[in-house]
Amino acid sequence: IRDFSNGFLIAEIFTVYYPRDLQLTSFENGTSLKVKLDNWAQLEKFLARKRLKLPKELIHGTIHCKAGVPEILIQEVYTLLTHKEIKSIRDDLVNFTDYSYQMRLPLVPRSTASKLIKDNIRLSEIKSNPNMLSNELKVEFLFLLQMLQRKLSRKLNPKWFEVKPTVGEFTLDHLPSHVSECKFNSRISRDGVAPVLR
Fold first, then answer.
1. Residue range 82-89: average pLDDT?
2. Could you tell me which residue ranges the CH-like domain spans (predicted)?
3. Given pLDDT bands bounded at 50, 70 and 90, which one contains residue 92?
């Protein structure tokens, strides 16, 4: 992941296809945020001159070492240069977080909220975009993601959490058989029942 973050390898690929338009000597193979941003700024100018387009979110995700993003970026570069589509390496939707990885873990080793933020928002992101509102929105999104992850875990594995059904849920699961035979035929469904406050 880190090898692609400074854009040097991407520049190397493009110099093979456009040796007269792009000089590799103008790129630095360093690890500082300044080097990364400078290299990618040069690449973006070059791409704009050639009327080629790489999605900004892929560039941003690659700079900040987001899991799975460089692979998608390489696919995009391949498509740009060869005009051929390839089957995606990743089958799941990429949301630039480690959500799919966390959902595959057993419950105990999953990240806490603070670790989730640390793992998914890099210091380089905050330095490159010091906009407080933008960073707050990212944190709120991660909190929401973790809350949904926990709710889904409770729903999928109620025995782990010792979740007991409410009286209403218990009643719906054990309706007498003669109720369905009534002419009245009330259509009670689990979806139509309002949640019981505890």
1. 76
2. 2-79
3. very low
Number of H helices, E strands in the chain: 11, 0
| Other residues' Cβ atoms within 10 Å of the Cβ of residue 23 | 11
C-alpha radius of gyration, the chain, whole number: 25
Mean pLDDT, rounded, of the chain: 78
Q: Which domains does the chain have, with CATH numbers?
A: 1-89 (1.10.418.10), 97-161 (no CATH)
Tokens of 49: 């001159």
Q: Which of 2, 24, 21, 20 is nearest to 11 (CA)?
A: 24
Q: What is the pTM of this model?
A: 0.55
b/e map of 9-19 (b: 16 or more CB within 10 Å)?
bbbeebbeeee
Question: Is the per-residue pLDDT at 162 higher than 80?
Answer: no
